[in-house]
Amino acid sequence: MKRLSLLLFVMMVSVFVAACGNGTNESNTSNNKATATEKIGTTETATAEPVEVVFWHAMSDTHEKWLEDATAKFNAEHKNITVKLVNQGSYGDLSQKLLAAAKAKASPTIAQAYAEWMTDYNQNNLVVDLAPMIKGENGFPADQSYEDISEVFRNDNTFGDKILGLPFNKSSRVLFYNKKYFEDNGLTPPTTWEELAASAKALTKEIDGKKVVGMGFENGMGSEFSMWVEQAGGDFIDEQQGKVLFNSDAGLDALTFINDMLKDGSARMAGEDGYMSGPFTRGDVAMYIGSSAGIAYVAKDAGDMEWSTTPLPKGVKQAAPFQGTNITMFANSTEAEQEAAFEYMKYLITPENTVDWAKTTGYLPVRTSAQQGSDWTSFIAENEPYQAGNTQYAYGFIDVRLPGSFAMKNAMQAELDKMLYENATPAETLEAMAKKGQEALDQAK
């Protein structure tokens, strides 16, 4: 990647994330590598000396508490490894700090990272190829192999012949809905766009003395526009050619569907509320599309409200984006740090841990054996809101990972806001989104 691309990425990334000098691989020099003297096991590090692994993350609340507890347990079980957690705020803050650290050659050992970020890191030789570790003698044990990780998540971390991360917090978009509102009005959860629109209209009224809007949309809709295009039967981006494809009949159908609901008042944006979980738990909206990782937050604030989730309603077809970050390893770390960090990364996604993480947070298990195991299936059978995300593996997809993807989405959002707030038509909005989005991709080449 040209330096221009990285600079554009630095400038644009903080604007996009409201729902996110060329580095050199100095670990190749013998002067800053520790000598491996012992094998990594459950209680030993790669060296006879203690090793510290610094992990930058953006977890908060329930999610951060789980991570802290799991890390404390790992540290206790590995006498020569200490994993130090450093909370860097939001994903936007994390991304900016990672890029600043890379310029200063002061990156952490590992960090959460979206695949889009990893594309830029890879182009600038900032991250470690994990493939040799995965295939080496200290790779995954036979009973929890690398191939057991869901294919969609392996693909998200594979860049050519390199594996640049392991999946961590992976979620799917689901439809949150107020069960009481639906039941009291003789409605069932919508399974199609048509049913979604009809339910939204039926529930936009005064209910129990409260003015209710049927459907809610998150402010950062540009980041999930690929979902709507895919559901409408279209294609979002040609990754091989780096070409925008959503300026199509499917793209127009998607924007028109959203715009019609907003115009007739049966839907609203999150607006000053920031996220739709607030209006939803207050009973101000009857349903909204959000991340399965929001389950823990909704449960915390909903009180005695009767609510659940359901799979995304389909348009022409079913399509659900899988989102969330991976953990990537930075190349300025020593060999001993890298081996210790890899041990920790494996630990976070053991079948037991990935299920416990999913139960606690609403994220999804990243291993097929965990998704199908009795621990998880028994849990979701007893906890209805967790079921929807688990059903969507069959038609889930990962988002575009091209250089300039964040800048593209920023540009798209700016044009989309003109339809959402300034009365631009869907047709002119789509044209402008495609033009500005393509320009951002082209500038990053």
Portion of residues within helices = 40-55%
Number of helices: 19
Principal-axes geometry comes out as globular
**Unreliable residue stretches:** 1-46
Taking the sheet with the most strands, its summary is: 11 strands, mixed
**CATH architecture heading of the largest domain:** 3-Layer(aba) Sandwich
- Helix/strand/pairing category: alpha/beta
Distance between the termini: 7 Å
Task: Name the CATH superfamily classification of the largest domain.
Answer: Periplasmic binding protein-like II
What is the CATH topology descriptor of the largest domain? D-Maltodextrin-Binding Protein, domain 2
**Strand elements, count:** 15
- Average residue pLDDT: 89
InterPro entries: Bact_solute-bd_prot1, SBP, SBP_1_CS
Organism: Lederbergia citri
GO biological process, one term: transmembrane transport
Main location: other
